Amino acid sequence: MAYPEGEFPGEQRLEQRLGPVLRRRDQVKPGTTDQRLLDTEGDSEWVHTDPWRVMRIQSEFVEGFGALAELPSAISVFGSARTPVGSTEYEAGVRIGQALVEAGFAVITGGGPGAMEAANRGAREARGVSVGLGIELPFEQGLNPHVDIGVNFRYFFVRKTMFVKYAQGFVVLPGGLGTLDELFEALTLVQTGKVTRFPIVLFGSAYWAGLVDWLRDTVVAGGKASESDLLLFHVTDSVEEAVALVTKEVGR
């Protein structure tokens, strides 16, 4: 015996359209969208569902775009939250923040302590615009006191979009897994042509030497990347050269 397409014996032919979503048979939900909205009693579990998370993600983009849209030209500075205050790396971060402001840039960091705080401090001391883009973590960090404009995010991928969208380049101080994540995100975007004229400067040749050697001797040598990919970034120990490189590549 043949049955209409998509139907089987004993099934009720039910169909429900909820905006762009079509539900049939056992997937039909009782009530209407308005009814569920206006019902003052009910389970609050809906605030933890994926559709609601989409709204939160959207709101983070809107807040970030709104807060940063009028920034002047900016450079994102990355580095470890564990860099001790007063260390050589910390003082380099302060000088980089100052020099970037003097070159006409705002300074964007992850807003935390360590190298991020150093760059924000340098920007603030130079009377520039000091921006911190924080992230919700299991352990509380908070924005450092040298941030003038701060935005806290729930989602790493939204935050990383802001780092790229509102910066004309990256300066990367010694850092850990988070810094490496941000570095390779930027390298991938430049390599694939998703962003253009985007200088990436690694500060601290001794720290980055092992990574550069591995990229050249293992990744490139093994055919997993091109020799030209090693030209996507610069390595320097000079604050002046780091600022000159980003200034030159963005046409300042």
From TrEMBL:
Catalysed reaction equations from the record: 9-ribosyl-trans-zeatin 5'-phosphate + H2O = trans-zeatin + D-ribose 5-phosphate; N(6)-(dimethylallyl)adenosine 5'-phosphate + H2O = N(6)-dimethylallyladenine + D-ribose 5-phosphate
Keyword Protein biosynthesis: no
EC numbers: 3.2.2.n1
Keywords: Cytokinin biosynthesis, Hydrolase
Domain of life from the UniProt record: Bacteria
Family recorded in the similarity comment: Belongs to the LOG family.
NCBIfam families for the chain: Rossman fold protein, TIGR00730 family
Protein name: Cytokinin riboside 5'-monophosphate phosphoribohydrolase
Record organism: Streptomyces crystallinus
Highest classification ranks of the organism: Bacteria, Bacillati, Actinomycetota, Actinomycetes, Kitasatosporales
